[in-house]
Write a structure and sequence with these properties.
Helix content: 40-55%
Shape: globular
Low-confidence stretches: none
Radius of gyration: 30 Å
Mean pLDDT: 91
Number of strands: 25
Structural class: alpha/beta
Strand content: 15-25%
């Protein structure tokens, strides 16, 4: 079949348009950057890395109703101009997966000439507003915002398919980051490739959709971060702020650069602009306006760049240069980049070391650093990984995370400092870091001194084989401490020990880091005892068994109704067997300890050996729950026996201390109050901030 004239014209326009855009890119960005972007566009994303999408079947069916509320938290404004089939698809998606948040949906018809005016007013719950004539995207959006009643205005193109949960995730950004003025969604193509993970603006006013044509879940695209702007195809802004800024700037009418301008205006007003990857929206880019910047509505993009560059000349002087590497430019607002490596992803509800590390990374983010986390096991840890991404941490994992030698060869130059957790991880990666990240300061985080814990366990068990193993650990641990630029330990006890072992090595104390919890119920409404500890850690197994074997019978004799709640994951048979004893409840892993911390009368920490600072002591104290402990359990924690905590090392003394706290309201209240004050003074995020600034960020 011969090619028609129309088809020939299409091929000519398509080819000449691509050539024109390519030449423009070369002139503004340079050959290298333009080539990189062309390769990204042409290189297919592996099937396994494409987004799994909800895409309703094409249909002209009009939904009977859409979600609505008389008191909406968010007002979704959908500007439309013809394209009724896409508008109906968008509304069907909103109706099929309504958000938790109360909403209203406002459709602003910008002079459509198809069936829009006939179909939409019949939809129950939809607020339909017809404009007198076609004024363009900006006019329609501003009209819709003027009708909005919600605390937030959410602009949503009609050529989109919002994915389940998108709006709740978008709105959660404002709650998690109260300084957010505007939040934008992750935009993806219908084929599952990424369209935009936030926008980058270069010094000449040109922009780039970061991550375009890449994998939506790739580490660089999957974490919350500050961006220059977010596409108006799916963004949320506080209504009061949008009103304060007089809406989208009409000088860009009818469209293009209004969303870029809004991002700069939001920042100029003192707020942040953030990209939220969990808010995923399919966008059929170019359906309404096309993609050719030489003809039609898209031509305004070229004109408006000049207007934008003139308006924001001072701000643009601080932006990355045109042609800058997009990966580097995507985080240009961060002053310092820190790589954190641990054996595995932190699981803060399972062990105190994980909680400390997560809070340390949270602190680094608060200090303006960009944090990159790499688990040596290269695994994606499900919700634990997603929690870090929501904190603004760039987390790497398979299949994107190559073996560390290969990955560090590519990424090593990015980092100003590197924190490596645990001596055995540092032993493996230190030569790689010295080779591929020579500019970075390398810090070891011991978590606790492993050899000290092993030595104490060997002594308690009187086991020569364990003692020899502890000596091997000692040699390895001291070796990497000596070769690191600095070392973190969790207590003055460990710092002083290393001062004798390795005089001259820079060793700093960075103890457990806790956020203060609620005080829970008063004494009279509490009951029972609890112990918390992950049972992959041998000292916790020994502690639970010793307590139930030696102390618990003495307590039950005095308090027959007392119950002991034994909490921790990875329960071995010997701990599970404790549940056969009267009053002992072995819970296993408990994801949220808050109800137990608020309702149980006191925590016990019957450790007979170990090292480091104990989260099983700090966490209850942060929630106003008193603790009875052994001397080993409170080592290096600034606690005063009899004032902040009761301490005993033998079974009879431990039982007597528990009964005193359990029965005496005045003593209970004293310990609760003093324990909280100790946490605030020594173990809060603020308490560790100065040493983190000096050692990891090079300040002060």
């Amino acid at each position: 079949m011969p090619i028609s004239r129309a088809e020939l014209r299409f091929l000519f326009d398509r080819g000449s348009g691509l050539l024109q855009r390519g030449l423009t890119s070369v002139r503004t960005r340079g050959v290298r950057a333009s080539l990189q972007r062309a390769i990204a566009q042409l290189q297919p994303v592996p099937q396994a890395q494409l987004a799994q999408l909800y895409l309703p079947q094409a249909s002209s069916t009009v939904p009977e109703r859409v979600p609505t509320s008389a008191r909406p938290l968010a007002s979704i404004v959908v500007p439309v101009f013809n394209q009724i089939e896409h508008t109906l698809g968008c509304l069907r998606a909103l109706a099929a997966h309504p958000p938790r948040a109360e909403i209203e949906i406002i459709v602003v018809d910008d002079g459509s000439s198809d069936g829009t005016a006939a179909a939409l007013p019949a939809i129950e719950g939809l607020r339909y507003q017809a404009r007198a004539g076609n004024g363009g995207f900006i006019a329609a959006c501003n009209d819709g915002a003027a009708l909005a009643r919600g605390e937030f205005v959410v602009f949503l193109n009609n050529d989109t398919v919002p994915q389940p949960g998108w709006l709740d995730s978008l709105l959660d950004t404002f709650e998690q980051y109260p300084d957010t003025g505007l939040a934008g969604a992750q935009l993806v193509y219908p084929d599952g490739r990424l369209q935009e993970a936030g926008g980058i603006v270069f010094a000449d006013g040109s922009g780039w959709n970061y991550g375009r044509f890449g994998a939506p879940d790739a580490p660089a695209h999957a974490f919350v971060r500050e961006v220059d702007y977010c596409s108006g195809a799916a963004l949320a802004i506080r209504r009061s702020l949008f009103t304060q800024l007089d809406g989208f700037d009409a000088r860009y009418s009818p469209a293009y650069y209004e969303d870029t301008d809004l991002g700069f205006a939001v920042r100029d007003a003192g707020w942040k602009v953030r990209y939220q990857p969990a808010a995923r929206v399919v966008h059929l880019e170019g359906i309404t306006a096309g993609t050719d910047v030489r003809h039609g509505p898209k031509a305004y993009q070229v004109r408006n760049q000049a207007i934008f560059a003139d308006k924001w000349a001072a701000a643009l002087a601080l932006q990355p240069a045109a042609g800058a590497d997009a990966d580097q430019a995507s985080n240009h607002r961060c002053r310092h980049t820190v790589l954190v490596i641990d054996a595995f992803s932190p699981r803060p509800d399972r062990d105190s070391a994980s909680l400390r590390l997560l809070n340390l990374m949270r602190m680094l983010r608060e200090e303006g650093a960009h944090v990159v986390f790499v688990p040596a096991d290269r695994g994606h840890a499900g919700d634990y990984t997603r929690e870090m991404q929501q904190l603004g941490i760039e987390v790497w994992y398979r299949p994107f995370l190559q073996p560390l030698p290969t990955w560090l060869r590519k990424h090593g130059p990015r980092f100003d400092s590197v924190l490596v957790c645990r001596h055995y991880v540092m032993r493996e990666v230190l030569p790689l870091l010295r080779r591929h990240a020579p500019q970075a300061r390398v810090i070891l985080d011991t978590v606790d001194l492993h050899y000290l814990r092993e030595q104490r366990g060997a002594e308690l068990a009187n086991d020569p084989a364990r003692a020899r193993a502890a000596m091997r650990t000692r040699r390895s641990e001291l070796d990497v401490i000596a070769r690191s630029d600095a070392t973190f330990v969790v207590s003055e006890v460990e710092r002083d020990l290393l001062a004798n072992e390795l005089p001259g090595s820079p060793v700093k104390v960075l103890s457990n880091l806790h956020r203060m919890g609620g005080e829970g119920l008063p004494f009279e409404q509490r009951r029972d005892l609890m112990f918390v500890g992950g049972f992959r850690h041998p000292p916790n197994v020994d502690a639970a068994c010793w307590f139930v074997d030696e102390v618990w019978p003495l307590l039950r004799e005095q308090e027959p109704e007392l119950q002991f709640h034994c909490i921790g994951g990875d329960v071995p048979p010997e701990v599970q067997a404790l549940s056969t004893r009267p009053g002992v409840v072995v819970h296993g892993h408990v994801p949220d300890l808050t109800p137990l911390l608020a309702g149980v009368r006191l925590t016990v920490a019957p450790l007979r050996y170990g090292a480091g600072v104990k989260g099983k002591v700090n966490q209850p104290m942060a929630h106003g729950q008193p603790v009875v402990a052994t001397a080993c359990a409170i080592e290096g924690m600034h606690l005063r026996p009899g004032v902040d905590v009761l301490v005993a090392d033998d079974a009879a003394g431990f039982a007597a201390a528990v009964l005193r706290v359990y029965r005496e309201p005045g003593l209970w209240q004293q310990l609760a109050r003093n324990g909280r004050e100790n946490i605030q003074r020594h173990f809060s995020l603020d308490a560790g901030r100065a040493v983190v600034r000096r050692v990891l960020l090079g300040r002060g």
